Amino acid sequence: EDGLADVADGFGGGRDTAAKLEIMRDSRLGTYGALILMVSFVTKLSALAALPDAIVVQSLIAAHALARGVLPVMSMGLPYARQDGLAANAGRPDLATAGIAGAFALVVALLALPGSDALWAALVAAAVAIGMAWLAQRQIGGQTGDVLGGAEQLGETAILVLLAARLA
Fold first, then answer.
1. Which of 25, 72, 149, 160 is most deeply buried (CB count within 10 A of its CB)?
2. Is the pLDDT score of 140 beyond 90?
3. How far apart are the first and last CA of the chain?
């Protein structure tokens, strides 16, 4: 949630790349960050409330795994927006590591959900990661730890909304 809020504050409030990165590094919560956290929370809660009780836990497990499983591929494909941040310190995964992470996430989703729902959820996770990567490249020239965290939260939310639409 911190990454999502920082991305919203930086991308929404910064006038140029340097200002956006500085806002994202600031630990205080701004207006855009507070707003996106409220929207995210209400959206997740609404999606979970719409799901049948018998599938809530499985949906959370699948959404959690898939939203994180795409991050190594996203990290592999984006340059660092700054050289001294969390993303740069964590390092860049190689193709094998990214593939294993994605495959593991897909297996978890397939074990938790019916096959077609798991595959649709994986496609949504990939689409959100691609969209966030495109936005981060345009806004700040690459990735930060906040961008990866924000992508995870958006992916998780989108997957839960998809599952609520398909399974409710």
1. 160
2. yes
3. 26
- Res. 89: pLDDT tops 80: no
Q: What backbone torsions phi and psi does residue 38 show, to the nearest 5 degrees?
A: -65, -45
Single out the residue of 167, 72, 46 nearest to residue 126, CA to CA: 72
Q: What is the pTM of this model?
A: 0.93
Please count the residues of the chain.
168
Percent of the chain clearing pLDDT 90 (strictly above): 91
**Strand, coil or helix: what is 80?**
strand
- Distance separating alpha carbons of residues 119 and 135, to the nearest angstrom: 24
b vs e for 42-74, b when ≥16 Cβ sit within 10 Å of the residue's Cβ?
A: eebeebbeebeeebbebbbebbbbbbbbbbbbb
Residue 50's contacts (CB-CB under 8 Å, 6 or more residues apart) are: 164, 168
The C-alpha atoms of residue 24 and residue 33 are separated, in whole angstroms, by 10
